[in-house]
Amino acid sequence: MGKHSKSPRAIGSAQTGPSKRPDAILAVGLPDGQTESLPSLLFGALGPTAVVANFADLTRDRLWSTMAVLSPLVAMDFDAVDMARHLASEEFQGRYYAFSSNLPDSSIIRKEIETVAPDLSFELINLNPSLSVVPKVAFNA
Q1: What are residue 9's DSSP bridge partners?
Q2: Dist. CA 83–CA 90, nearest whole Å
Q3: SS3 (DSSP) at 7
Q4: DSSP letter assigned to residue 91
Q5: pTM to 2 decimals?
Q6: 31 Cβ contact list (under 8 Å, min separation 6)
Q7: Residue 124: which H helix or E strand, with range?
Q8: Which of 76, 62, 78, 61 is nearest to 25 (CA)?
Q9: Strand partners, 72
Q10: What angle do CA 68, 72, 76 make, to 5 degrees?
Q11: Is the Cβ–Cβ distance between 113 and 85 less than 8 Å?
């Protein structure tokens, strides 16, 4: 897995110092247009406390108190199967959410995730392409 070029940053306000609250939600691989709006849309009041993290930063120590990891089904340098395999290897106890606006056959994806990470709590989210959090890109032919 290649590393993301951006450093982790809080989407919303976060506490600092020795009493820092653990990251409840880690957002990994989200495009810039979704880093602030998507966690709030999916997690409500907890959304603004989500923290952007790099795939390489998802260590057992970082994940021990995390309740959820959120990522696209397919990101620039990993996909949901890579993420599920990694989370299982780090003994992640929270829930993993993968999302896509063009969701292929969800049963195939779920089976593949279950194969590589049978104990992982996994949710696949189909975003409606008309939602404002999904950037629309036009290509000129």
Answers
A1: 52
A2: 11
A3: coil
A4: T
A5: 0.74
A6: 72, 135
A7: strand 121-126
A8: 62
A9: 99
A10: 125
A11: no
